[in-house]
Amino acid sequence: MLKKEKKLIITYHTSNMAFATEKVCKEAKIIGELISAPRKLSADCGISYATDVGNRDKIEEVLSKNKIEYDRIVELEV
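Above: the chain sequence. Below: its structure as tokens.
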């Protein structure tokens, strides 16, 4: 059985914002990946970005600086 770990999950209303997040996070050297949005969160576009919970402050700063709109940011075991 796979062990679940807590991740920071960002959901979006549009897939464009999810792809933009992936791009700016790579540039900022934030390790993460696009994943299917967990059903518990039911993102509008079906895509979310997952990263370590310790990246919260840095990722919020990067999203704000790049004017990337998101639905919400939550900590969730995935």
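The first helix runs from residue 15 to 27.
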